[in-house]
Amino acid sequence: LPSSDKVKHFFMSAFIHSTVFSATRAAGLDKAPSQVIAGATTMVVGVAKEMYDRKTTGVFSRQDLAWDAFGSLTAAALLNGTR
Questions:
Q1: 53-67 pLDDT, tens per residue?
Q2: 5 membership: H or E segment, kind and range
């Protein structure tokens, strides 16, 4: 089983992706550009978090980024079925 930290990365990334996707759709963008913007935003936040961790703890985790990507992709897949 994944650690609680990895689960947090997954769900926070899914939340960020969903929120940005919803905001861009509400602003009138189509699904495809909304998915791209949401995915890019999610990964920028994930990388920024890892840069902060490296600065404060000396650790930059690629595994955390993988869980971020997994959360974002899961949200994207679920949101593709929406209007």
A1: 999 999 999 999 999
A2: helix 4-26
Reported as a single tens digit per residue, the pLDDT across 9-52 is 999 999 999 999 999 999 999 999 999 999 999 999 999 999 99
Task: In whole angstroms, give the CA distance from residue 63 to residue 56.
Answer: 18
Q: Which residue has the tokens 């935003």?
A: 41
DSSP secondary structure, 6-66, as one string: HHHHHHHHHHHHHHHHHHHHHTT--HHHHHHHHHHHHHHHHHHHHHHHHHHHS---HHHHH
Q: What is the rounded distance in angstroms from the CA atom of residue 68 to the CA atom of residue 70?
A: 5
How many residues does this entry show for the chain? 83
